[in-house]
Amino acid sequence: MAEQLVFELALRPAMGREDFFVSAANAGAVAQIDAWRDWPHGKLVLAGPEGAGKTHLAHVWAGMTGAVLVEAGDLDDRVAEEHADAPALVVENAHRLAGQPAREAALFHLHNALIQRAAPTLFTATDGPERWGLGLPDLDSRMRQAGLARVAPPDDALLMAVMMKLAHDRALPLTPKTLAHVAPRIERSFAAVRAFVDALDARALAAKRPPRFKDAKAVLAEMKQPVSR
């Protein structure tokens, strides 16, 4: 059943990156990314918790549009001037601008330059702009004009699909029993899935045999151990 569920998921090429899987957790956001020409005022906020796949989806969109990717923490007047002529822009972790007047001002000027040329902009964040706490009123009002797409934490189906893809890339066999056991017990993030596959692969290489169900359980248990200080 788990194997059937995995293969029923939609599979999208991620513009030269690893395959991007679509499930109920991100289907709505994917649809809004596909409809980027219809974004309100040419901009969209892609909101969701850490590890939900926002960055991956932002890279997919950048591949579609030729967008330049900028980390919010790197924004300053020089970066704003450098990218004022970009065909499209991705600002990662835009919520982290709050409380940094110089960076907020840099984004405000960059945003205005892009809007004047009708260049679309995608912002990733943990929540909608009304929750960012921006101190620059003009920037705050413009961010609230953006469309909002939400990405939920990965569901079991999505975690299993990504786990299977990562394992396949390493020629690491995972049984449906293993997938079904791990998915509901692992942290809801792609980073955790990658760490699990890495650890399972290392264990299999050390044992010089394919991983067994007990190996998967052992790796899960190790991942849940508190870090000693």
Listing every helix as H and every strand as E from the N terminus to the C terminus, the arrangement reads HEEHEHEHEHEHEHHHH
The number of distinct β-strands equals 7
Uncertain ranges: 1-17
CATH class of the largest domain: Alpha Beta
**Overall tally of domains:** 2
Arrangement of strands in the largest sheet: 4-5-6-3-7
- Assess the beta-strand content as a share of residues: 5-15%
Class of secondary structure makeup: alpha/beta
What would CATH call the architecture of the largest domain?
3-Layer(aba) Sandwich
The number of distinct helices, counting runs of at least 4 residues, comes to 10
Instruction: Give the integer mean of the pLDDT values.
Output: 88
How does the major sheet shape up?
Answer: 5 strands, parallel
User: Helical residue percent?
Assistant: 40-55%
CATH superfamily of the largest domain: P-loop containing nucleotide triphosphate hydrolases
* Estimated radius of gyration: 20 Å
What features would you describe in this structure?
The chain is an alpha/beta fold. The protein folds into two domains: 78 residues, Helicase, Ruva Protein, domain 3 (Orthogonal Bundle), CATH 1.10.8; 125 residues, 3-Layer(aba) Sandwich (Rossmann fold). The chain has ten helices and seven strands. A five-stranded parallel beta sheet has the order 4-5-6-3-7, with helices on one face. Strands 1-2 form a two-stranded antiparallel ribbon. α9 crosses α10. One of its GO terms (biological process) is DNA replication initiation. This is Chromosomal replication initiator protein DnaA. One of its GO terms (cellular component) is plasma membrane. InterPro entries: P-loop_NTPase. GO terms for molecular function: DNA replication origin binding.
